[in-house]
Amino acid sequence: MLDGSNPKTGKIWKKVVLQFTYDNHTSTHEFLVSPIGSHAAILGIKWLETEKPKINWPLRTLTFPIPTPESAYIAQEEEADDNPLEGIPTQYHAFAKVFGEEEFNKLPPHRSYDIEIELTEDGPLNSPLYSMTDAESVTLKQWLKDELKAGKIRPSKSPISSPVMFVPKKDGSR
Fold first, then answer.
1. How do the domains of the chain map onto residue ranges?
2. Residues 65 and 52 sit within 8 Å (Cβ to Cβ)
3. Which one of 5, 74, 78, 121 is least enclosed by Cβ atoms within 10 Å?
4. Reported pTM
C-alpha cells in the first residue's frame, strides 16, 4: 500500500502493467490489483515520484507538467485470471471460498458458543491515557470506520479500551 505494507482488506491478486498516453507523452507503470476497501484506486509513491503531477489538494485534482491531454487511454491491460485455483493443490479447492473477498470482508456467523467477557466492578483496570497526534487520531478513526463497514469489528460496550500503537515505518510514516 502507500507505506509498503500489505493491503488490509485482502491479498494482492496480480500485477498489471498499464501504459498511459496523453498528448505525445507515453508512460508505462506497474500497478497491483487488490481489493482496497472504499477507494477506487491508489496511485503509489513510485508513480507520483515518476510522473510528478501537480496536486490541488482542496479540489482533489491532478494536473501534469505537460499540456492538458485531449484524450487518455489504456493501451495495454491484462485479462482477469480465468482459473484462480491454478497452482493450488486439488485437495484445497473446496476451501477456496474462505479466501475470497466476500468471505474475507465479513465475520463468521454467530454460534451458540460465542463468548462475551463481562467485567465486574471489583476488578477495575487503571492505566494511563496515551495521547495521539491529530494525524494518528484521523488514521485510527478511518481504520475503525473501514473495519466496522467491512463487518470485521463491532462496537464495544466495555468501559475499558486498549491502547493503540502507531509504529513508525522506514519512510517515517506510521
1. 14-74, 131-155+162-174
2. yes
3. 121
4. 0.34
